[in-house]
């Protein structure tokens, strides 16, 4: 598979196939907390699939944007009345509170996102994997997604996130 076929025309991406997994590296820019700019590399590791499930790609893109703290991208795929629950911690209702909570979450830069499994069926989906932060901290996660319908363009209406430190 050539680079353009796999990743479009974005020159910031390159990929390497290794043991059935795709590795995407992208130089991303973010604010370093001191008002200056910084460049970080986010590695996204995700097992290849048959490509017949468009929601898998959508969830991969949403989780990648989430890791990059690209709140506007994530919000574009959420229903106005989104409900986000982190059992034992938070229950958020609505896009604005969701955006605020996302911004408040751990301020450490994520350097690696490993999406181990993406499962979709009807209006339900789940993604599990691990993240590694710049400070070396690792977390395992599983996000369960409920869409407003089984339609291809249906927004996400509920997310239940389970997060464990490793």
UniProtKB/TrEMBL annotation:
InterPro entries: NTF2-like_dom_sf, SnoaL-like. Pfam families: SnoaL_2. It comes from the Bacteria. Residues 64-152 form the SnoaL-like domain. This is Nuclear transport factor 2 family protein. It comes from Halobacillus salinarum.
